[in-house]
Each structure stands twice: as C-alpha cells, then as structure tokens.
Write a structure and sequence with these properties.
There is one protein chain. The protein is α+β, with helices and mostly antiparallel strands. It folds into five domains: 3-71, no CATH class; 98-246; 266-493 and 524-537, no CATH class; 563-722, no CATH class; 727-808, Alpha-Beta Plaits, CATH 3.30.70. Helix content is 64%, strand content 8%. It is built from 23 helices and twelve strands. The strands form four sheets. It has a five-stranded antiparallel β-sheet.
Amino acid sequence: MKAIPRLFLLCVLLVAGCLATVQAQDTSHHAADSVYITPEGDTVSSAFVKRLLRFAAVSRKRSVADRQRDKAVMLQDDLFENLKKTMQRTRTYLHSGIDTAGISADLTHVERWYTIAGDGIFVNGGVVQTYRNLASSYNMLLVLQNRVQQHKQELDNYQRRLSQFRYQLDSLSSDPVLFAFPTDSAVLSKYVQKLMMVAVEVNPVDSTIEKAMSNVQALQAKVNMQVYRIESAKDEIEVYQRTLYRTNFEKEVTALWEPPAVDRPLQEIIAVSWKKGWLTLRFYTENNAGLVALLLLLVLLSAIYIRSLKKIYRQKNLLRNDFAGQLLLRYPVLSALIIVLNIFQFLFPQPPFVFSALLWVVSAISLTLVFRGFITRYWMRVWVIMLLLFLLACGNNTILQASGPERWFMAALSLAGLVTGIAVWVKKQHRSELREGWIVYFIGFLALLEVLALVGNCFGRYNMSKSLLTGGYFNVIIAIMFLWTVRLINEGLSLAFEVYSGQDRKLFYLNPQRVGAKAPGWFYVFMIVGWFILFGRNFYAFRLASRPVKDFLSQEHQVGDYSFTINTLFLFIGIMGVSVIVSRIVSWFASDKHLAGTGTGGREDKPGLGSWLLLIRIAIISLGLFLAFAAAGIPMDKIAIILGALGVGIGFGLQTLVNNLVSGLIIAFEKPVNVGDAVEIDNQAGTMKSIGFRSSVIATGDGADLVMPNGDLLNSHLINRTLGGNKRQLTLVVGVAYDTDLRKAEQLLKEVLEADDRILRYPAPLVLFSEFNTSAIDAKLLFWVKHSNDPFLVKSELIVAVHQSFQLNHISIPFPQSDVHIAPRPPAPGAA
C-alpha cells in the first residue's frame, strides 16, 4: 500500500522534468548546462537523471524493508494467535485432567489389598503353602496389576500430553519472529506492551504445567513401585505353585494324629480367607459386569418363556398334578436358573472358585426345590445329604491355610462322603427309582475319591487330600445338575413340540418342529466336556496341562502381511455364529402375525416387529460382521478388497441374487406386505409367514408353504387384504318368486345381515333387487366382513340364515323350471 504514493510522486517528478526541458529549449542562456540526448532525440538534464536514479534506488530499498516489516507483522500476529489457542487448550486440558487425588486414594487401597493378598504367603505363612491360597492370591494380584497398569498408562499419557503442551509453548515463546522489533518508536511501544501481556498470560500456565508434571511424576514413582512389587509377588507365587506341583505326592505336614509343627489360629485363617474370597468375588464381578448382566437377562427370558408355556398347558387343561414329564413347568424361575446357570457359566473366562461356587449353590438349591415332592423320599434324602456335604466342602475350600482343626474337619467330611457313597452303592433295590441312572456311577466315584482323600490327609499329604475331597463332591453335584439340565431341556422341547405344530404368539414364535423334540447329540458332548473341565479345575496339574494349549491358541501366525492367532479365528467364528443365532432368535421371538381386526377391548391389533424383522436381522448380522473383523484384527482395506471382488461377481453372474436381496430391502423399508398379512398372488390366497433375505414364505390355505423370491414378490400383482384394514366385501345373490312381497323380503334380508356380528355396520350392508331373472327376481346382498379369513364361513352361515328366515315367513326361493311342450306330429301326406 505504501508503494502507491511513491509511484504517484515519481510520476509527478517525471512530468516536472519534461516541462523543465521544454523551457530550456526556449531559453538560450541555459545552453551552458549539460544535456542528455535520448534515443528518440529528446534532451534531458543529466543532473535530473542522477537524482531520479537515486530516488528509485532508495524507493526500492524502502519497499523491500516495508514488505519485510509487513511479513514480520503477519507472522507475529499468527504467532500470538497460536499462543492464545495453545494456552486455551492447555488450560482446558489441565482443568479436565486426571484425578490425581482419586488415583492416590486408589493406590492406597491397592496397597492394603496387596497386604491382604500376601497374607499367608509372604507374611503369616504356615508350615505349607496351599493351592487355593496361592491361586486366590495370584488372581488378586492379577487384578491389582491390571488396575495399577491402567493408572500407569493414564499417568504416562497425561505426562506425555503435558510435555507436548509445554514444548509447544516454549517453541512459540522462543520463536525469532517474536523478537523482530519495529523501528517506529510508537509502534515499538505498543508491541512491547503486547509482549508483556502475552508473557503475563504464559507464565501462570507454564507454572501450572510445571506443578502438574511434578505431581504426576510423584504418582508415577509410586505406581512404578507398585507395579514392580506386584510383578515380583506374582513371579514368587508361580515358583511356589511349580514347587507344589513337583512335590504333590510328598509329605507336607505331620500325620493327622501327630501335633502340627506350626499351627496358626483357625479364627485368623478364616478372617483372612473371608477377606480374600470377598475381594476376589468383587473384583471378578466388576471386571465381568457385562457377562453377569447377560446371564441375568438370559435367566429372565428363559423364565418368561417357560412361564408362557406353562400358561398354555394350564389353559388347555394339559397340566398334570404330579408334573410327570412336566417338571420344567413346576417352577419356571427355578427351572430357568438351573438351565441358564449350568450352561452359560462357561461364558466366564477363568472364574475364581468363589464365583463358580456361588453359581453352583444357587443352581443346586433351585434343583432341590424343583425335586421336592417329585422324586422318591429315599433319593430326596440322598440328594439333601449330598447337597449339605457339598456346601460344607465349598466352605472348607474357602479356607486358604492349613490348620489342625481344619484337617480333622476334612477327615470327617471325607468319611461322611465315603459312608454315604458306599450306602447308596450297596442298596441296589432303589436304583430302579432313579430318573437318571448315571448318578449311581458318579456317587461311586465320589466314594473312591474320598477314600484317597482320607488316606492322604492321615499321612500328611494336605494339598492332594483337599483337592480329592472337594473334587469328589463337586463331581457328583455338578454331574447331577448337568444330567437334570439336559432332562429339563428335553422336557421343554418335547412339551413345546406336543402343543404346537407351528409358531404361536404365546410361545414367542419358537417353532418346535425346527428345534426338535430332543436336545441334539452335540449338546450331550458339550455337557460331558464341561463336567470334565469343572472337575479338572480342582487340580493344579490340570491347569499346567492346559497351559500349552492356551499358549498354542494365543501364539501368533503369519500369512503374508497379516498376523493372527487361533483364538482370534475362534473369536471371529464365534461372533459370527452368535450374530446369526441372535438374528434367528429375534425372528422367533419378535415375529408378529399382524392379523388386524378387533382385539381385546374392540381395538385393532397393532403391528409388531414383523415388518421390521428383516432390517433388524440385517443390522444384527452386519454389526456382528464388523465386530468379528475388528476382534480378529483384520484391517478394513481387506474388507474393501473383498467388497470389490463381490462387485465383480455381482456384475457377472449374481444379478438375480442381488435383485432378490435388494427387493427384500425394498419390501422391508416400503412395507407393502408385513409378516402375518393375508395376501393373494395369482389367485393363490395365503398368509405371509416370513420375509427373508432372498425369498419370502407364504402359508397357503391348503397347509403348504409357498417359497417366492423377493424379486418375483415385488413384481407380481399382490393383493394385501390386511393392508386395507383386513375387511372384505362379499356379494350374495338370492332369488325370490315373482309373487313375493319384495318390501317384506328386503326387510327380512336386512334383519339377517344385521344379526351377524361379523358383518360390519359401516359401510352398511345393502339389499338391492338387481334384475328379473328367468324364474325369480334376483336380490343382491352387498356387505363387508371384519376379517378377510372369514368370508367363506360367513357366507355359508348367511345362506343358512336366509333360508330359515324365508321358510318361517313362507317366502319361496324358486328354482329354474322349464315347460316342455310336445307338439303332435302332423299326419303324413296321403294318410287317411
């Protein structure tokens, strides 16, 4: 902008120089001055040219200096703006930073929990280390390690972010552009004031960052110390566990009848064991809160389903007083607890004993209440005794350190299990009363394990004795619960199969024919493997044997640039399988017949999820697909390659399939037809049974299922009775004799129509005399029925009612008659 006045001044000087030249030509006494002759022949004073060149050089230097000053001002403005933004972000981050007080308080809790975890191992140790104590402490330390590692990562990220803010502020504050001072004194004064304001704003922010970093560094030191202590404790516990495994069959304590070498008071052991057990249960439940919520939801859904099935049996008077073959329906909530807890307990990864024992106790008590009054008195007593001994074994297994009183209690418990097992095995006359004959073999196995536990306890093999003692009781109780779980599932499938041959609202649209009347064979294999795993968890050798398998499953494999593990592959398949199963469950539980009409209270039934079912299933499967890819670590660019390959395939040979898939989406969005609608296609009437991805199923009136591709369904001339309110207009033609009183016949016909509740009052039914027919006057009845599935029945009963009314009022319905006139043959010509 400053170059414009200089350019104007230069033009003025040039004009003045030209005028002076002209004047010099007119005046001769100026001839003594030297002149400069231009190429064009003009003459200019040499002194003026020199002044002009000097002015141009000075102007050029001033223009360069001005341009550099303008650039410096722009850079300084940008720098100040960046400083303000950085300070604002820094203040915001400091204001919403981590809760150092909360982390410090949590570290105090971790310190206290670490002391509890180390009790009986690093301090107050007995004469022998125990499997349960080492396992409980190890699980606690693992949780504490994860907790402290989260704090460590949080503090490291916070420290890194603060360092970044500090580096940005230092870089901006020390930028050389900031120290390019203007030469003008007034501008310099204003700029210095601006610098001082910025310095005043930056200084407290920098001090706050310094203080925050100091606090974080102090916390980091405490966290690092905690991490080191916990990792060292874990390593030491692992050494103890391997030592116990190597000396499993060696003598660890004195014989039972000998005085113990070291005996900590039992009250202290119980107190410490209670603290460890409670903390272990609390930590595990908090870390797996989602799975616990899922388990409760499954219990709720199962209870609702069993309760609805029981209601159906009660309504049909099929419920037996003794619940023979219907034990599932006796207590729906308890049956749901038994089934869900026994099957879905395997969802929880490496549960501690306290958590598993809680699930087992709830399931066993529920089974006891279901048993009451159903099984024979003898086997009920056996079950109650086994359950009480099992509860005592669970309580004993929560005691984490050895003591003399506990060993005598273990001996009594082993002896009780041995006596009970032998008594049951010897009395063979009651075996025929057993509902599940395999139970006897598990009771015999219990007696064998208790003998070994008793012998090991007597001769100082404490850990082996305790593992055999608890394993024996767990084996029989878990086996009985698993056997009855399979039995209850088979009962549920059989009961549903007997009552329903198709889907029904009260059964949540579960089709028993698709499921079958008995649990599949793989389910029995699953329960056997599950029993083996739960039984094997009582022995440390089982855990050591399973560790190589876990390592193999978690080991990374390389295929090209992609690395994967067997676990991720199983996880991918599992997520996809779960998404498909969930989509099918939704199709069973959320389908809606959508038979419009009058429901309870005279209101129309509202459509449910049937019309949105396809979209819901697509959403579930799509979400499952993306979750599976994310869980398996497959990058999204690989998905793009797959989609590109699919696009090529679609372009060449999958047009029909894609057409049907897209048509299914159009049907789902546009909803010209819903699940449960009464439809007609090419004079074929039926009910929409399902709308799938590629095809839809229509249940015809003759009991068959018509499978129609979605593309054909969308392009066909579809009549949807339900979409129009599910009503239907019918016509009935009645002929009356010519001598009939037509007004009386009309009145009788209207009375018959109004007497039928299935005929709508609006639009009102009409009786019209249409034409004079051959032998009668035709009366046409026009009326609407409420439900499109009633027309043939309504019409049939209406004909009967009209016939009876006409008979009572002596109105005849003529039938076609013909008079045949036989003309006499004319006499033949010439006849007499």
